[in-house]
Amino acid sequence: MANPDTLPPNEQTQHPKRKRTSTKPPTTSITLSNPHWSYIHLQHLPSTTANSNTTPNTTPLDAPTIHLHLRSALTQFLGLHGSAIAFDILKIEHHNVWLRVQAEDRVAFVAAIGGWVGKDGREGWRVKGWSYWDAGGGSDGDAGGLFD
Amino acid sequence: MFLLNKDEKSPPKCYFTSSSLAAYIDHAQIPRKKKPFSTILAHTFTHTLDIALPNPSAETLQKVLSNAKDGTLHFAKVYLKLEDILTGDFFNAYIKTGNILMLSEGRPGVDPVFSLSDGILRLEIDRPTFERVGLEGKPIPSAGRKHIKVRYAVELNLRLPSMVRGKPGFERVLWAARNVLNHSLAWVFCNLREPNDSAGPIAQHQPVWKTSQPQVETLRNVLIPPFPDHVSENDHETAEELLEWLSLVNILSPRVQKGDNVDPAISRYEVPTTSNESAEGSTRDLVRLRWRGFMPSAFIEKLLLATLKSVGEDWYAIAARSFDGQAYTILQNGSHTMTWEYQG
């Protein structure tokens, strides 16, 4: 509104001293309070079978398998409603998976995944953290294991 | 919905600010009251720091950091009782005359958590403990949540002249440390005056010294969304989408890479583009440097200045996460600064 560039020429000549165009954009602050998404960091707990090594040498899961796992967990726990919850797999690293779900589905999703166990009763998922803003999923007091 | 978000403390908030930064920063007179510097200083205890930047400037930054050794973080893990901090050489050398940063173990909001910064000892404790310590404190606001136990914060400025042996105020603190808060705890310790000095009074407590070098990862052919020169007050979407993209880069997600033709059933994420489809050329190789450890804000400020210098007119992003769950992300594009501050 007060930008000298947009003023009609006659007004500009009236204020010759204000001609110095400010290239600095003004400071704006926004409070974001209705997040669309929530980001969840899961850890896959593989079933440690008979030859119980302390290091489970199971191969890390791939995206389609994870998708099936989570889909089955959601349907088991929440039925039709669970099958309608959509999620996006953002990143897979070894046994860690980062996901995105709709913010309002977060609680239902975490409850379904956290309570799910695989067929042998040992396989499962651990929710390592979640965040409304950060795809890394927060750290939830883990503090990067600095005190261990 | 039959599963309501009952555990919601308060509506989640993310504070976004778009501002401009002077082209030249005098290292002797850093504008610490302005963003992004004020954001860094507002977070005292950081455990994870990510810097993401495009490739040619990333190499410059790595060279600068390895020459100046600014990129190496020194801290220690040590088992101490509160009394060990308040007595003897430790108290005199580190608190009265020196400057250290310390934080005790414990889940924020659940366990007793003690911290020490700029000579101020802060004890966050639950009500029964607070009633036993006999020190003045304030209840920590819980935003009116029900069924949450009230916690108290006791803040003591140990640098005050009255905080010496023999003065009643200090004797009360010592009494509390001997009789109530007398557990041995794991602490992280950072000497702000001499970060490399491992010989000081801490040596008698068998500290475990740790150094942290950045872990460097490259993410190739990343689609770069258009960075706005200015964000208007109601443009929530741009602010949200940029933060999402930055945090995806920081977890090295393949979803931001060009040619990631993943099935929509797996992920529907798409890098935001401008409405006119001319943003074809905006793919670059990005480098992410990640530090983990006990980071004072001075360390991050130094890194930010080094990055600012290496990058020049290009852009970079810094994301940091604190022990109390606070986090921030800074995107600097030329002279345009964007910051996001949020919980979690």
Automatic annotation (TrEMBL), chain A:
Extract one GO cellular component term from the record. ribonuclease MRP complex
Pfam families in the cross-refs: Pop8
Q: Tell me the first and last residues of the signal peptide.
A: none
Give the UniProt record's GO annotations in the biological process aspect. Answer: intronic box C/D snoRNA processing; nuclear-transcribed mRNA catabolic process, RNase MRP-dependent; tRNA processing
Residue ranges occupied by any Ribonucleases P/MRP subunit Pop8-like domain in the UniProt entry: 36-116
| A single MF term (Gene Ontology) | ribonuclease P activity
Where do the segments described as Disordered lie? 1-32
PANTHER family in the record, alphabetically?
Answer: RIBONUCLEASES P/MRP PROTEIN SUBUNIT POP8, RIBONUCLEASES P_MRP PROTEIN SUBUNIT POP8
This protein's name: Ribonucleases P/MRP subunit Pop8-like domain-containing protein
* Phylogenetic placement of the source organism: Eukaryota, Fungi, Dikarya, Ascomycota, Pezizomycotina
UniProtKB/TrEMBL annotation, chain B:
What top-level branch of life does the organism fall under? Answer: Eukaryota
UniProt cross-references to Pfam families, sorted A to Z = Ribonuc_P_40 (PF08584)
Recorded GO cellular component terms are:
multimeric ribonuclease P complex; ribonuclease MRP complex
Q: Which InterPro entries match?
A: RNase_P_Rpp40
Q: Name one GO biological process term.
A: endonucleolytic cleavage in ITS1 to separate SSU-rRNA from 5.8S rRNA and LSU-rRNA from tricistronic rRNA transcript (SSU-rRNA, 5.8S rRNA, LSU-rRNA)
Under PANTHER family, the record lists: RIBONUCLEASE P PROTEIN SUBUNIT P40
Indicate what this protein is called per its UniProt record: Ribonuclease P 40kDa subunit-domain-containing protein
What organism does the record attribute this protein to? Neohortaea acidophila
